[in-house]
Amino acid sequence: MTRSVGLWIDHKNAVIVSVDEKGETIRKLESGAQHVVYRGAPRPKTTYSAQYNQGDDQLDKQYLLYLKKYYEKVIALLRGATGILIFGPGEAKVELKSRLARQKGSSPQVQVEPADKMTDRQIVARVRRYFQQAR
C-alpha cells in the first residue's frame, strides 16, 4: 500500500495530509515554541554585550528544544510514507528536510516547495494535485 504525505509547516504549526487508496486524513500539530524576544538590541555577534543578557541564551536553548521535539513528532507521523511533499513559509521546511535526511533506514523521496499561509482546504488540494501529477 502506497502512502503519500504532504505537509504545510512553519515553526508554530504543521498540517499533515496523508493520502492513500482509502482517501486522505488530516492531522494538525502545534510546536508550542514561542519566538524569542530579546530585551535589548538584536543579538550581537560577540560573546557578550551589555544589551544581551545571559537569560536570552536560555531562551534560545528553550526555543530550540521545543523545535526539536516538534520536528520529532512530525517525523514520527511521516514514517512509512513513500513520498513526502513539504511546503510552507520560512525555514521550517528546509530544517525538517535536513532532519529527515539524517534519519536512518530507507528514506522516501522528499520534495520541498515554498508556500504562503494556506487554509486546510488549500493544503489538501495542493497535496492531492502534487501526487496526482507525480504518478
Distance between the termini: 15 Å
- Number of spatially distinct domains: 1
The radius of gyration is: 17 Å
Uncertain stretches of 5 or more adjacent residues: none
Strand order of the largest sheet: 3-2-1-4-5
Q: Overall pLDDT, averaged?
A: 85
CATH class designation:
Alpha Beta
CATH topology description: Nucleotidyltransferase, domain 5
CATH architecture: 2-Layer Sandwich
* Secondary structural class: alpha/beta
The tally of beta strands, per DSSP, is 5
Q: What is the overall number of helices?
A: 3
- Envelope shape: globular
CATH superfamily: eRF1 domain 2
Major sheet characteristics:
5 strands, mixed
Beta-strand portion reads 25-35%
Task: Summarize it.
The chain has 3 helices and 5 strands, in the order βββαβαβα.
Secondary structure topology:
Blueprint: E1 4-9, E2 13-20, E3 23-30, H1 54-78, E4 83-88, H2 92-102, E5 109-114, H3 120-134
Parallel strand pairs: 1-4, 4-5
Antiparallel strand pairs: 1-2, 2-3
Q: Main traits of this protein?
A:
135 residues, alpha/beta, Nucleotidyltransferase, domain 5, 5-stranded mixed beta sheet, 5 strands
Question: How would you describe this structure to a colleague?
Answer:
- A hairpin with a 3-residue loop joins strand 1 (4-9) and strand 2 (13-20).
- With 135 residues, the chain is an alpha/beta fold.
- The protein has helices at 54-78, 92-102, 120-134; strands at 4-9, 13-20, 23-30, 83-88, 109-114.
- The longest helix has 25 residues, at 54-78.
- The protein has a single domain (4-134), classed as eRF1 domain 2 (Nucleotidyltransferase, domain 5, 2-Layer Sandwich), CATH 3.30.420.
- The chain is globular.
